[in-house]
Amino acid sequence: MDAEFFRAWIAEIAAVIGAQRDHLTQLDAAIGDADHGTNLARGFTAVQQALAAGETPTPGSVLLLTGSTLISKVGGASGPLYGTAFRRAAKALGDKPEADLPALAEALEAALAGVMKLGAAREGEKTMVDALAPAVAAFSASVADGAPAPAAFAALTDAADAGAHGTIALQALKGRASYLGPRSVGHEDPGAASTVLILHALRDVAARQER
Ligand code: ADP
Ligand code: MG
Q1: pLDDT at residue 45 greater than cutoff 90
Q2: What is the pLDDT of residues 47-102, one digit of tens each?
Q3: How far apart are CA 149 and CA 105, in angstroms?
Q4: Which ligand minimizes its atom distance to the CA of 75?
Q5: What is the pLDDT of residues 117-127, one digit of tens each?
Q6: Which residues contact 55 (CB under 8 A, 6 or more apart)?
Q7: CA distance 120 to 129
Q8: What is the pTM of this model?
Q9: Probe ligand 1: pick from 22, 38, 81, max atoms within 8 Å of CB?
Q10: Phi and psi for 133 in degrees, rounded to 5?
Q11: What is the CA radius of gyration of the chain?
Q12: Exposed e or buried b for every residue in 189-198, given b needs 16+ CB within 10 A?
């Protein structure tokens, strides 16, 4: 996976976040302040502009510019959290021209660690961590088992889907939704839902490359 692959991933994220903007905002309307979709759509539009304007010769440079742009352009909790995730992944990839599956697994683990540290969040608190953590664990385990790319990416997205669905039953303990207390139960976490979209985009771009 080279820089072009990672630019294609970000472009796919921008497309699906744009398409799902209103859905994400509706999820946030139920337990937050109804801005998650617009926050991320604005952020990834800015990322696309930054990538078009700048040179990003390596996977790491693509993700670094993505993360920095999200941090500077997205208000709300999700900007710094996703921004940090992409920046930490970038750092893990370093300046190598290509990333193989084990390198991508390490980058995703670094991204998860960054989110958990910045958000002081653990699994079970009804945040994006509830989609990202099981997805990263499943992907890493699959890659460590020597699974081929399609199986590893399927493990990634299956675990993310299940994790995001699982947030419906949880009470929010972090972020704005936690202000609702027990009334936050019964709604999918918007950040978990956007994490699903971001990871599906990765799987879909990888599947396109396989062909
Ligand atoms: P805001 O809550 O500031 O309006 P967004 O609506 O863009 O920001 O994003 C909300 C999402 O951010 C939540 O659904 C949740 O997944 C995630 N989030 C909020 N706080 C935290 C945290 N401390 N740790 C991890 N994720 C968090
Ligand atoms: Mg919000």
Answers
A1: yes
A2: 999 999 999 999 999 999 999 999 999 988 999 999 999 999 999 999 999 999 99
A3: 11
A4: 1
A5: 999 999 999 99
A6: 61
A7: 10
A8: 0.97
A9: 81
A10: -65, -50
A11: 16
A12: bbbbbbbbbb
Place of tokens 């937050």: 32
Q: Which residue has the tokens 């946030």?
A: 28
* Count of C-beta atoms within a 10 Å radius of residue 6: 28
Helical H segments across 32-183, by residue range = 36-53, 59-73, 78-93, 101-119, 129-144, 149-166
Q: Residue 175, SS3?
A: coil
From 20, 31, 36, give the residue whose CB has the most ligand 1 atoms within 8 Å, as the site to mutate.
36
The DSSP call for residue 187 is S
The answer to whether 32 and 190 are in contact (CB under 8 A) is yes
Please state the φ and ψ torsions of residue 98, each to the nearest 5 degrees. -140, 155
Tell me what pLDDT residue 44 has: 98
The DSSP 8-state label assigned to residue 122 in this structure reads: -
